[in-house]
Amino acid sequence: MEEDFYQVLGVDRNASGEDIKKAYRKMAMKYHPDRNPGNKEAEQIFKKAAEAYGVLSDPDKKRRYDQYGVDGLRGTEAPGYSSFEDIFDAFGDIFGGGSIFEDFFGGGKGRGRAGRRGASLKCDIEIDFKEVATGVEKKIELTRREVCDTCRGTGAREGTSPVTCPYCKGRGEVQQSQGFFTLRTACPKCHGNGKIIESPCAKCGGSGRYPKKSIISIQIPAGIEDGTRLRLTGQGEPGESGASPGDLYCDIHVTPHPIFKRQENDVLCEVPITFAQAALGCTIDVPTLTGRVIQVKIPKGIQNTEVVPIRGEGFPNVHGYGKGNLLVQVIAEVPTKMTSRQEELLREFAELEKKNVSPRQKNFFEKMKNIFE
Ligand SMILES: [Zn+2]
Ligand SMILES: [Zn+2]
After folding, report:
1. How far is the CA of 108 from the centre of ligand 1 (A)?
2. CA 192, CA 89: separation in Å to the nearest integer?
3. Are the beta carbons of 273 and 333 closer than 8 angstroms?
4. What single DSSP character describes residue 334?
5. Handedness of CA 152, 158, 160, 165 (dihedral sign)
6. Per CATH, domain 260-372 is 2.60.260.20
7. Residue 37 burial (10 A CB sphere; 0-12, 13-18, 19+)
8. Distance from Cα 8 to the centre of ligand 2, integer Å
9. Which residues have a beta carbon within 5 Å of ligand 1, which is an ion?
10. How far is the CA of 117 from the centre of ligand 1 (A)?
11. What is the mean pLDDT of residues 54-83?
12. Which ligand gives the minimal distance to the CA of 185?
């Protein structure tokens, strides 16, 4: 089915040029490849939006499209962009200098017809609490489209080389006159390369790229938080003709722990104790993040959910400044099953309690008295 360019940009048919521009800008930012590395769907939307904007932002094309649909565009330069590079070249101005676009396309360094920056890649890494506590090196397997070693990236069959494009005579761009303006656009035959391949390389089929598995080692710093995205500069796919390679983005996922909960750099651990232990005080064994077991002294008379902090047993600060604490939170359990002897002792205890009211209870009764007086 034919795409409706207005629908693609989410504007209605009477939208002004300014509204169309705004709608495109919003979509381009949202589906920008730098914000969605490796997301094919976002890439498609991004390209479609550019295609729609290419038509609707051009008064002549817009008029033809409005009148005859896509058929009306025949004979004009075909909409559709083979790469992000072309999109940037076409509409970069509406984003302004120094935007995230510049960043994605290598700050202009790798830009230009001759050398396109390599694609950025994304991976996910799962680590556990212990690895967060100590930091860890992870090895991941990645398939990247590397420069084909048979043709050394030229895409031409062994013994041949790419030839100068006859259509643009090697310039990589063609000029088109439109009213007062002369538009320069990428050559449709060579896609701006200035050269075409007559006899493609057998290994890579002329693309100059070949998928290759690589093992990449990633150093994950201690104290890293769940959901952090690490950027490995230059670990994406190689750029064209010496342009800079893309980056590799690694999303770090921390597996939830059965007994620890992270609170900033502190780690909370709930430890059940009996109500007798809470009343009398005790020493309990508590595990730490690194797997050691330490003895923690619980003071006499500790209240339910009260916390005993153990200094320096939390997560290290990800920037290397200090460490959080282990927060031992006691959960004083009220017994539900007792032996008859235990119950007898407890009843005796309760008798004595009547005569010797606890401080909090005393406070409570006094407040209550004030309310009813
Ligand atoms: Zn090749
Ligand atoms: Zn050409």
Report:
1. 27
2. 12
3. yes
4. P
5. negative
6. yes
7. buried
8. 30
9. 148, 150-151, 201, 203-204
10. 19
11. 74
12. 2
Q: What is the pLDDT of residue 248?
A: 92
* One-letter amino acid of 17: G
CA contacts within 13 A on the Cβ side of 153: 13
With b meaning 16 or more CB within 10 Å and e meaning fewer, what string describes 16-33? eeeebbebbbebbeebbb
Per-residue pLDDT reduced to its tens digit, 200-233: 998 888 888 888 899 999 999 999 999 999 999 9
> By the 8 A CB rule, do 53 and 15 touch?
no
Residue 109, helix vs strand vs coil? coil
| Pairwise CA distance, residues 163 & 171, whole Å | 12
Helix (H, G, I), strand (E, B) or coil at 351: helix
DSSP annotation string for 59-79: HHHHHHHHHHGGGGGTTSPPP
> In angstroms, what is the span from residue 198 Cα to ligand 1's centroid?
13
Q: Which residue has the tokens 């940037």?
A: 88
Query: With contact defined as beta carbons under 8 Å apart, do 174 and 167 qualify?
Result: yes
Pairwise pLDDT comparison (365 vs 269), residue with the higher score: 269
Starting from the CA of residue 155, give the closest ligand: 1
Report CA(149)–ligand 1 centroid distance (Å): 6
DSSP result, 309-333: EETT-SPBPTTSS-B--EEEEEEEE
* CA–CA distance, 251 with 227 (Å, rounded to integer): 6
CB atoms within 10 A of CB 106: 19
One-letter identity of residue 103: D
Nearest CA-CA partner of 190 in 173, 177, 202, 208 = 173
Q: Where are the domains of the chain?
A: 1-104, 260-372
Per mean pLDDT, which range of 42-46, 84-88, 184-188, 281-285 is the poorest? 84-88
CATH fold for domain 1-104: Helix Hairpins (1.10.287)
Of 72, 134, 151, the closest CA to residue 315 belongs to 134
Closest-lying ligand to the alpha carbon of 210?
1
- pTM: predicted TM-score of the whole model, two decimal places: 0.56
| Residue 58 pLDDT grade (very low, low, confident, very high; cuts 50, 70, 90) | confident
